[in-house]
Amino acid sequence: MSDKTKSYFCPSCNSPLVNLPALAGGEASCQKCTWKGPNTELLGYEFKTGFDNAEEILHAFARDIRLLMAQNESGLKMGQLIIKWGLVQNVDVPTLSRYVGNVARAIAVSVLETRKDIEKEKQSVS
Ligand SMILES: [Zn+2]
Predict the structure, then answer these.
(1) Per-residue pLDDT for 11 more than 50?
(2) Which of 6, 76, 87, 124 has the fewest CB atoms within 10 Å of its CB?
């Protein structure tokens, strides 16, 4: 039994809302931004998970990162940095949580992009 899910993200805006071409080598497009291109440019990942779609995977991955940030207090320190840099004026917990949540999501996206880059490098070497 295979529980692998192959998921695709837009290489421009990282949205999982991409239209996949029926044929290999066809043109894919993003529903969220104006990106269009060959499906080989999509950020595609195979996950061994019980998730149904890419957005769920990204969400769960970001939630794990956020949990880690809460446990080792890096989320708190990130909030302090955001205040230090003047992006938030007061200790406004809901606003800071929103920033930290998006930081976690950006980390998740960055990890997926790094993996894509590494996979690309492997292909061009062989
Ligand atoms: Zn897009």
Answers:
(1) yes
(2) 124
